[in-house]
Amino acid sequence: MIFHDRYLVGCAALAVAALVTIPPAHAQAPTQPTDAALNAEAAQNDWPTHHGTYKSYHYSGLDQINTGNVKNLEVAWMHFPERATRGIQSTPLALDGVLYYSGSYSRVYALDGATGKTIWAYAPELDEELVAKQTHSPYNRGIAIGHGNLYVGTVDGRLIALELKTGKPVWDTKLLDSKKMTVGFTGAPLVVKDKVIIGAQGGEWPHRGPIFGVDGKTGAKKWEFFTVAGTEEAMKTWGGDSWRTGGGGGWMPGAYDPETNAVWWGTANPAPLYDWGGADWKKSGPRPGENLYTTSVIALDPDTGKLKFYHQELPHDAWDFDSSVGEFVMIDRGGKKLVVHANKGGHIFVYDRSNAKIENVWPLVKNINFVKSIDPKTGELIGRRDLVEGKVDPPLCPAIAGGISWNSGAYSPKNGLFYRIGQEWCMELTVEKTTPILEPMAQLNIGATFKFIPPPDGPARGHLSARDPVTGAKKWEVTYPQPPLASVLATAGNLVFVPDSVGIVHAYNADTGEELWSRNNGMGHNAGIISYMAGGKQYVAVPAGWGSLVADEFVALYGEPFKSMPKNTGALVVFALRQ
Question: Where is the signal peptide (predicted)?
């Protein structure tokens, strides 16, 4: 997705692997990441997987930092990564008192969680010429841990396993011909049982957006699922040969439901992003038909990669409002096992976990005009607004960056509230006919020019709202002059943390929305935020560093401080209570 902005055996000689020697302070008993990931409430000391646990809560069960003492939060230590092009966009992981995170160019760092001292660092050798040609690179949005390894994807199409204790390369598997396809990996992998699962970029590139299952111990590719025309059923939903250049992809990590042995994954938009078929999109335009399985949530068998079930959130997505938002919040409510998923178009979808049947759909943002509504019982798009060549009037809402972006919300099992950032903005748009370019190297296939503008009801802005995840009923809301682009963290200390776009980290009372603490990190945030325990002390880790395709639009919309904000620097800022 162009506005989702999307990232090691690189030669061992070039790998800064093994600055080993410093043991983590007060190391805790070893934890199995997959065990911890299975239970959102149990994984209190650690943050073992991208979304915290398989339940995607972005919730820490730690309460040492709470509403009563959060005012005493201060910087404990900081770490500065090298080559922080486009800032830092990853979500750190924490296990047994050690913090791990990735930076641009898929560089990885292992740090003592209590002191910030480097245990090891790793820098893969990348195809720099290729990186220079990629629109979204060289950022990386996360890593995975399992089988004694740490896993990271690269923008030149590789998945690399590093020994967790030393950072030394274990295996390096080439999964994509990135010199031909242009795309690589920018999102975090997901470890499920013996597999490492990772999705490729796609969306605006003319390919078929695969998701891969790789053996976690050997690096052998075990399966590949194409999000574009990946089954016979799906092939029939692409007119002519349009499936060959259909886009798709699954560039953010999904979640895993062990009860049904299903990996839930969100898929990207079809290509070209903007379709000029108009109301006759089933039979005309560049990609006639529903375009399965783009802009869908899919459930895959992690053992085989076979599709178990799916729901296409926006059939024939003509607006670049895909489903690649990776969080799948798994909750039990009223005797039902549900999963809650955010779509870029500004709606929240609630599904039955066993079959992806729609339980409810509700809007998170106000400014939506690509559809009049979505049926909350069937998911059917009502009054969809299909585009034709030329100027789109009135402007399209939300803008290409979405009513919801790739950053994750948070769910608190303590009070049952779902905290999600929404974005209120629109854009002027002119749809232009394009032809896919595949040689000598795949090129972006957007199909439009556009400009961000404020929505009809006021300035372009963002908000954090606390809601019932199933009904959407709102308890409280905080508005920001500029949409926050970072993820949200909820904790058992009854706190919600939000790193915003101007550089301030906010802590709110989870029940009321009252702001209890803030700190200015000096640069915008567009990454993940986590909490973990090291040496008997709770820490909150916030990657700071600005720079993405969405962030680039803030200059025209808002001016300062974004006009002067550096985009190629970053820092991991870690907070703890004052002694």
Answer: 1-27
